[in-house]
Amino acid sequence: MSVDITGLRHCMEGAIPSPIATCALDGTPNIAYLSQVQYVDACHIALTFQFFNKTRQNILQHPHAVVKVVDPHSGSSYRLHARYLRTETSGPLFEKMKAKLAGIASHTGMVGIFKLQGADVYEVNKVEAFVSAAQLPPQPSPAACLPTLRDASNRLNGSGDLDDLFDTLLTVLRELYAIDHAMVLKLDEARECLFTVASAGYAQAGIGSEIPLGHGVIGVAARERTPIRISHMTSEYMYGKAVRASAAAQGLQQQLETAIPLPGLEQCRSQLAVPILAGSELYGVLYVESPQDLRFGYDDEDALQTLANQFGWMARGMACQAAVEPAAAAGHSLPAPPLPELGDSLVQVRYFAADHSVFLNDDYLIKGVAGAIFWKLVHCYCAEQRRQFSNRELRLMPDLGLPEISDNLEARLVLLQRRLQERQACVQMLKTGRGRFVLQVSQPLLPVAEG
Questions:
Q1: Phi-psi domain of 219 (left: phi exceeds 0; alpha: psi -120 through 50; beta: other)
Q2: How far apart are CA 205 and CA 419, in angstroms?
Q3: What are the strands, taking DSSP E only, across 300-441?
């Protein structure tokens, strides 16, 4: 009969390696260490299948094993008596374990040696505790999860628009969960990548930085629509920064012009990426990290996935409401702030139609749909002296090329507004009401359409 192992999830973080005992048909025992024990549900675990070794041979002949797991906080040990069911070589569970194994490999210098061939799923039918936590110093009780989650959910519910929703989520993570380093990435369906819309805790916000689907823990979490959590230091994003620095040193600036650096910790020791979902629709990814080992546990994963799902439905609802909302109901518009006195330096707004990339003089600003929107705003400002705009009128402009379904206009505008703020650009977008904004321009502009 299966047992409930939910209370032992924290023993499967990988801080203390787990041995597995198997037996051959002739009764010969074998013990080996596992790279990873993954909690699947209340009565199932998954173990890494990396090598066709004696353990693998024994399991295929005699599908019973005993796995030892240890509580990293109290030292309590448990024997899990389990029966082998199947091996998965694709799908969310496999990809999650593959990503974790890659993190372990980079942490231990075993890249190229640790390669996941499959995720072996076992049913746990008995648990034995053989070192009691009562013999060890008592551990502080964890904070109550549900009241904190309820508070976080209520705060998200109070968000007035998408921009506010992004800020509220990052504030909730910092104030209620003590998570100081986080970013929210939005899916770009057409280009099959994710772009950073909001971040907190970094010297550079990295608004507009991109990650392809399937790349790293963020890209895998998006592609497989499953949380990815790694509790050890990895070199993945530090490697990307090193490549960028090397290219810059070699004078390959053109290759870097439109590549906004992804924000991240230099010494990241814990990572958690959870997909932002609205039903079957992928909105993006919520990513958090920490310089501490074992910073994020299963409770954090559960809480952040719940918040991410609520965020996904709210973001989708706000986008749908904005798309069908009549102009008269778009909210009261505040008076536009006074136009500042223009400086003396002429700024060329250079636009490249091939990828809609925009440069302010020689400084890269943005590309894609957000770039096309910015170019349109600047053109209207220079040709018609217009400063005030609404989301609705942008949505109706055919030359922007917005898709008819799920245009994500509001997310693009948030991205553009935050990117302009981060760059302290001579053009800023200030909200004057729901679905309305005004351009604040501090230098004379000259639009230039490049080849």
A1: alpha
A2: 9
A3: 347-352, 357-360, 363-366, 388-390, 427-433, 436-441
Q: Which of 6-20, 86-100, 102-116 has the lowest mean pLDDT?
A: 102-116
What SS3 state is found at 186? Answer: strand
Q: What confidence tens digit (pLDDT) does each residue in 159-186 have?
A: 989 999 999 999 999 999 999 999 999 9
At residue 269, the 3 state secondary structure works out as coil
Q: Which residues partner with 272 through β-bridges?
A: 229, 288
Q: What does the alpha-carbon distance between residue 292 and residue 197 come to, in Å, rounded to a whole number?
A: 25
How many residues make up the chain in this entry? 451
Separation between Cα atoms, residue 206 and residue 391, nearest integer Å: 24
**Residue 128 pLDDT exceeds 80:** yes
DSSP string, 37-55: EEEEETTEEEEEE-S--HH
What does the mean pLDDT of the chain come to?
A: 84
pLDDT score of 109: 46
Tokens of 278: 């609205």
Per the rule left: phi > 0, alpha: psi between -120 and 50, beta: everything else, 22 is: beta
Region at 409 (left for phi over 0; alpha for psi -120 to 50; beta for the rest): alpha
Which residue type does 227 have? P
pTM (predicted TM-score): 0.79
Give residue 59's identity as a one-letter amino acid code. Answer: I
The residue-averaged pLDDT of 113-141 equals 75
Q: With contact defined as beta carbons under 8 Å apart, do 264 and 209 qualify?
A: no
Q: Is 236 left (phi over 0), alpha (psi -120 to 50) or beta?
A: alpha
Q: DSSP readout, 222-267? A: HHHTS-EEE-S---HHHHHHHHHHHHHHTT-HHHHTT-PPPP--TT
Reported confidence tier of residue 240, pLDDT bands at 50, 70, 90: very low
Structure tokens at 219: 């890209």
Residues linked to residue 283 through DSSP beta bridges, in sequence order: none
The whole-angstrom separation of Cα 380 and Cα 395 is: 15
Distance of CA 155 to the CA centre of its chain: 20
**CA distances to 214, 323, 388, 438, 439 from 381, in Å:** 40, 24, 9, 10, 8
Residue 258, pLDDT above cutoff 70: no
The three-class DSSP label of residue 324 is helix
Q: Where are the beta strands (DSSP E) in 266-407?
A: 270-278, 281-290, 347-352, 357-360, 363-366, 388-390
